[in-house]
Amino acid sequence: MRADVHRLASSVALTAALFAISGCSDGDVRPPAPTSSQASDDPTTAPPCDSTALEPEPAEPEVAVLDPVRAGDLDRTIAVAAVRHLAGVVGPREATGPAYRQAAGWVSRRLGRLGYDVVRQRVDVPAGESWGVAVPAGTSVNVVATPPGLEPGDPHLVVGAHLDTVPQAPGAEDNASGVGVLLAVAEAVAQRRTRLPVVLVAFGAEEPRGPGDADHHYGSRRYVALMGPRERRALRAMVSLDRVGVGDRVPIGSATASDPVQRSLLVAAGRAGVPVVADPEERSSDHWSFVRDGLPAARLGSTPYAGYHSAGDVPEVVSPDQLGRVGRLVLEWLAPK
């Protein structure tokens, strides 16, 4: 009983002290409001007690304002390290084999750690012949990294690069170079603002499994086939990074005579100070899967080199300077205007 009385007394005393601090009389928890004459003539009159005055103001929610991405934000060492890992450690990555699955897992983890929502799209691939080597039927995957919160109908851009190789090539230039730049771009834009959200895709099964146009680009064709009507309308442009680590100028390829995506890349290259060459009627990469389905797309890369589709396609073939040029161009293209 005495303990209860003591607690009650302490509570009353604390309440009185709080009201005293706020300007209220400790003898009257809620005194009547003063008359207008008291309020103006008697400076000693205590103001009315309002318990809400003791509550802290709600904090304004903090809204993160991201810096805009710029060409100079590229860390080319990310691209160089990816080329060395994929071509020097993993090696040849035939689309249906265990080495490809290892590479896809590695890319998925890298993108996931950057905060993207990462999914793998199954790609069914037929048996055939890839650059003179018989390859079995099986499954490959596209690794798709989406910024958190992006809805299918939201305007966006796609940057992609194929992850597979022909069976006999470690594929440093074709196409660890493209995947390396893709990862460097992913890192640069993960915490920076772009003109539109960017979806990043490592495509499976780009390399040929036969002589015809329908015998390759399986991963990008699958990606396009899975796009719903809202997503198709929302896609503003796609860029394929394919063989981007050789030479001292960046080829910008277009599948059509007058291509707005190619033009926008040429303009971005001028702003970034990157030397380029326009490459017309270019259809031999994953951008073609988009273009032939009525979607805007272009390609970066395609300089000829001696190790193409051979065991000589090793990391030493790839120029870090050229990786840097391509990465800066892509970031300038993605930058807010």
Task: Summarize this structure briefly.
It holds the Pfam family Peptidase_M28. The protein is of the alpha/beta class.
Characterise the protein shown here:
- The protein has 337 residues and is of the alpha/beta class.
- It has two domains: 2-54, no CATH class; 71-334, Zn peptidases (Aminopeptidase), CATH 3.40.630.10.
- The protein contains ten helices and ten strands.
- The protein has helices spanning 2-21, 36-41, 76-90, 98-113, 172-190, 218-226, 229-234, 260-272, 287-291, 320-334; strands at residues 117-125, 128-130, 133-135, 138-146, 156-162, 198-203, 235-241, 250-253, 276-279, 297-300.
- The strands form two sheets. The chain has an eight-stranded mixed beta sheet, with helices on both faces. A two-stranded antiparallel ribbon has the order 2-3.
- The protein starts with a helix and ends with a helix.
- Mean pLDDT is 87; it is low at 1-54.
- Residues 27-60 are annotated as: Disordered.
- This is M28 family metallopeptidase.
- InterPro entries: M28_fam, Peptidase_M28.
Helix content: 25-40%
Spatial order of the strands forming the largest sheet: 1-4-6-5-7-10-8-9
Protein structure class? alpha/beta
Question: Could you please say which CATH topology of the largest domain applies here?
Answer: Aminopeptidase
Query: For this structure, what is the CATH homologous superfamily of the largest domain?
Result: Zn peptidases
How many helices?
10
The level-1 CATH class of the largest domain? Alpha Beta
User: Any idea what the shape is?
Assistant: globular
Radius of gyration: 31 Å
Chain-averaged pLDDT: 87
Give the total of beta strands: 10
Kindly give the count of domains.
2
Along the chain, the helix and strand elements come as HHHHEEEEEHEHHEEHEHEH
Which stretches are low in confidence, meaning pLDDT under 50 for 5 or more residues running? Answer: 1-54
- Beta fraction: 15-25%
For the biggest sheet, the summary is:
8 strands, mixed
End-to-end span in angstroms? 74 Å
Second-tier CATH architecture of the largest domain:
3-Layer(aba) Sandwich
